[in-house]
Amino acid sequence: MRPTTGLDKFGEENLELKDLSLSECLERYLDAKRSVLLFSKGVILVEGDGEEILLPALVKNIFGISLDELGIGLINVGSVGFENIASIFSQERLRRHCAIVTDMDAEVEGADKSKVEAAKRGKSRKEKLEKLFGRNIWVHPFYAPHTFEVDFANIDNNREYIKEIIEKHYKQESTIKRHVADLDSSDAARYDSVLIVANGIGKGWYATLLASKVDDKAIIPDYLLDAMVYASQDIINFDVLWKIFVYRFASRDDGEAIELQKQLSVLTSREQRLEAISKFVEKHPKDMFSIFYLKHEELINDI
Predict the structure, then answer these.
(1) Do residues 101 and 223 touch, judged by C-beta distance below 8 A?
(2) Burial 252-268 (b: 16+ CB within 10 A, else e)
(3) Rounded to whole angstroms, how far apart are CA atoms 272 and 274?
(4) How is the beta sheet containing 139-144 ordered, strand by strand?
(5) What is the pLDDT of residue 157?
(6) Could you tell me the pTM of the whole model?
(7) What is the 3-state secondary structure (H, E, C) of the chain?
(8) d(CA 150, CA 194)
(9) Consecutive sets of 10 residues in the chain, 303 residues long: mean pLDDT of each?
(10) pLDDT value, residue 51
């Protein structure tokens, strides 16, 4: 696999590059990103600090493994210019699955921070990515309905971590109460509140603070989980899934978990372990392990 095969021609025909060839652009870019981008078994491209900082923390706390253990390299593009970097993944060049994660910025009625222009840019970005990579089996875009910060906050479980940050960051009790109330209020109020808090603190630092708060009860937004499944589809195996399954019970102290913990150590065959997983998934379909497992099961027939 050669990253440069047909790359400049692709750049000329699809990206309208004139002053510098695509291979020259990427050669300079890869000086900083080479080890992750070229040698990971699967890649996720994100557009901001929030995903780059918080996603690894979510995976570690929820699944008990790192993105490295899943074979996934996480690259912060630092903008929305995904197409240049994603172009090296194709049947002609690098045959590695590359997930692009970007925001749709869908308009939220009644939210002051929601802009029509941003929604138009999100729609245009989607059209461009699907035109470029619609037939590329190695690249697939995944879209946040709004933005990472907002979509993370739209999940009930995740709001408790945000409330902790609000209570520690702000000094005025009235400000704290207003933001906390808005989180559990309408979509518009939550949208504005989350972006005011995140922008006020700074999105990178906000994500860092969240990363220090999240635990195994946090929920990864569905589009990000889909991106993880896509990027790891050639790497994931039953042993990794079993490791995640065991971790999900390691810190739980309810009766069911304690009983299952006793059984796990004597389940040595793949068939026994698969049966245990199947029973759990059937009983707890909304658990993060169940969702992650089923997404892989649908994608990989021999899991």
Answers:
(1) yes
(2) eeeeeeeebeeeeeebe
(3) 5
(4) 72-76, 42-46, 97-103, 139-144
(5) 94
(6) 0.86
(7) CCCCCCHHHHHHHHHCCCCCCHHHHHHHHHHHHHHHHHHCCEEEEECCHHHHHHHHHHHHHHHCCCCCCCCEEEEECCCCCHHHHHCCECCCCECCEEEEEEECCCCCCCCCCCCHHHHHHHHHHHHHHHHHHCCCCCEEEEEECCCHHHHHHCCHHHHHHHHHHHHHHCCCHHHHHHHHHHHCCCHHHHHHHHHHHHHHHCHHHHHHHHHHHCCCCCCCCHHHHHHHHHHCCCCCCHHHHHHHHHHHHHCCCCHHHHHHHHHHCCCCCHHHHHHHHHHHHHHCCCCHHHHHHHHHHHHCCCC
(8) 6
(9) 73 67 68 68 92 95 93 84 86 92 91 89 91 94 95 96 94 94 94 94 92 94 95 88 86 70 79 88 91 77 45
(10) 94
Exposed/middle/buried for residue 76 (C-beta within 10 Å: 0-12, 13-18, 19+): middle
Q: Look at strands 42-46 and 139-144 and give their pairing.
A: unpaired
**Other CB atoms within 10 A of residue 84 CB:** 16
Contact present, 26 and 88 (Cβ < 8 Å): yes
Provide the pLDDT for residue 215.
94
Do 232 and 42 contact (CB within 8 A), yes or no? Answer: yes
CA distance 186 to 109: 10
Neighbours of 196 (CB within 10 A): 16
Calpha distance 128→86 (Å, rounded): 13
- 207 vs 113: CA distance, rounded Å: 19
Main-chain phi, psi angles of 302, to 5 degrees: -100, 20
- 10 Å Cβ neighbour count for 238? 15
- Residue entry with tokens 């901001």: 48
